[in-house]
Amino acid sequence: MSHDSDAFVFFGATGDLAHKKIFPSLHALVRRGILKVPVIGVAKAGWNLDDLKQRAHDSIAEHDDAYHQLLSLLRYVDGDYADPETFAALKRELGNAQRPLHYLAIPPSLFATVVEALQTAGCADGARVVVEKPFGHDLASAEQLNQVLHAVFPESSIFRIDHYLGKEPVENLVYTRFANTFLEPLLRREHVHHVQITMAESFGVQGRGRFYEEAGAIRDVVQNHLLQVLALTAMDPPAERGEEAMRDEKVRFMRSLRTLTPQDVVRGQFVGYRDEEGVSEHSTVETFVAVRLRVDSWRWAGVPFLIRAGKQLPVTATEVVVQLTEPPQRVFDKGTPNRLRFQIGPDLRISLDVRAKTPGEGMTGCDESLVLDERPHDEMEPYERLLGDAMKGDQQLFARQDTVEAAWRIVDGILGDVTPIHFYEPGSWGPPEADHLLPRGAKWLSPQLPGDQA
Predict the structure, then answer these.
(1) What separation in angstroms does the CA of 176 have from each of 170, 171, 181?
(2) Are residues 195 and 120 in the same domain?
(3) How far apart are CA 371 and CA 351, in angstroms?
(4) Structure pTM?
(5) Is 225 a catalytic residue?
(6) In this structure, is residue 83 part of a structural domain?
C-alpha cells in the first residue's frame, strides 16, 4: 500500500526551475488541498528563509490564502551539497517526517553527491526521490546514473520526471486509443501508411546556448519526450489494469524499435545559432533533427515512423499524424488520404481527416476534418500534476529505468557528429534533406492550428 509523503524537499530552491515551475505548482497543490506538509528548500546561495519567501512571492502571481498557507509551510537549509552539515541541518528540519519526497532540481552532475549524502544523514530511509531530465547523456551514463540511484533507493521510490508525460493531451492520446473500439483495428500495418510526429518551436534557444551546446535536439526532445509519445501512439494495449501494466507495454514497444543508424537521421542548424551567447562559432550541434524509425513487431512491420523536431520553425505546435493507406481502388476523384491527428500543443485536438462529397451535381469530393475532441490549453500545469502524483507514490506518468535505457539504446548511434549539419533559414521547416527520409509519395505534414482545414 502506498502512503503519501509527509515532507517535500527540493534541492536547487533558488534556481530558475524553482522560480518558473516549482513554486507555482506547489501553490496550486496547496490550493487543491493536496500539499499540507513541510516544504523544505535546499540550496547554496547565502540565503535565509525570508529570502526564499520573497522568491516565492516573486514567482507566484496570485497572493491568495493558498499562497499564505504555502509560506507557512516553507523551511530553508542553506549549504554546500558536499558538506555533511548541510544534510545534518536538513535532518533536523525534517523532524519526525518518515516518508519525505526529495526533488533534485539540480544538474545531474550533483545527483550522486546528494543521493549519497541523503543516505549518510539518514534522510533517505522510507523516502522517495524525483530526478529531472536529462537521465544521462548517453546509454552508458544513463546506466551509471541508475546505479547511483539504486544504490540508495529502490526503483519503486524513484520518480524520473518528464513534464511531457504530465500534459493532458498526452494522457488523452493513450486514453482515446484504448477506450474506443473503432480505433484499434486501424492502428496496424494493414491500414497505416506511415506515422509522423512533429514538435515545432517558432523560437530559438532563448539564451540557453551553453546548455544547448551540450544537448542538441536529439538529447533535448527526441530521446525523451518524442520517443515516449511514439510509444503511447503505437504500443499494444496493456494486458491488465494498473500503472505497471501500462509501463510494461511501453518498454516492450521501445525494445521493438530498431537502433537508429546515420542513414536514418538528418540534422540541421538554423542560420544565426552560432551567434548565440555560449555557442561555438564552429558549432555542429543540431537545432533540428528528423529521424526515420522502424519497428520489428507483428503489428507495425514495414511501417515507417518519422519524427521531426526543431527550433526557429514557422509555428509552435506538437502533433502526431497517423496517415492511413489509400483505398485499394479509386472510385471517385483522388483526394487527401485519411489521417488521424492527435494535437498535443498548443491545445488539445483529436481529429480525423476524411473525404466527403461536394454539394451539387457530380461526384466530386472535398476534404473535411471530423473533430473528436477539442479544448484549450489544460489549466493544470504538468509539474502540478506530476509532483502531486509523486507525493502520492503514483508512478504511472514517470519514466521507468528500463524505458529510459531502451530509449538511449535507440539514439545512441546517432549522437554527436556522425552525420553532417545542414543549415536552414529561421521560419522555414528545416533543411530540405529531411525529405529523403519520407516514404515514396509522402510529404511532411505541418501541424494544424485552430482555423486550419484538413
Answers:
(1) 10, 9, 10
(2) no
(3) 4
(4) 0.90
(5) yes
(6) yes
